[in-house]
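Illustration 12: VRR-NUC domain-containing protein.
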Amino acid sequence: MKESEIEKRLVRKVRECGGLCYKFISPANPGVPDRIVVTPDGRTIYIELKTEIGRLANIQRWQIEQLRERGADVRVLKGLPEVEAFIGEVFGSAKT
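Figure caption equivalent — predicted structure in token form:
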């Protein structure tokens, strides 16, 4: 499955659960995570999506480390099964 298809599924599931799923594009800051998820209760989670065989670039690893050092919840989700597990964890298993 392509990363774009995985991303569409994440966006749809998050919205169905009442959350927001913003695209995070920052030309001035390469390697930032793909999406910002905001749950109905205000929790913010940064998501980097990959295919099941995708790998993080060095700049992505650095950006994720920078966010985590500041207390941000950053997830790297590989493939649809990890997206489904994320939705279940964050929004409840009934939403997967």
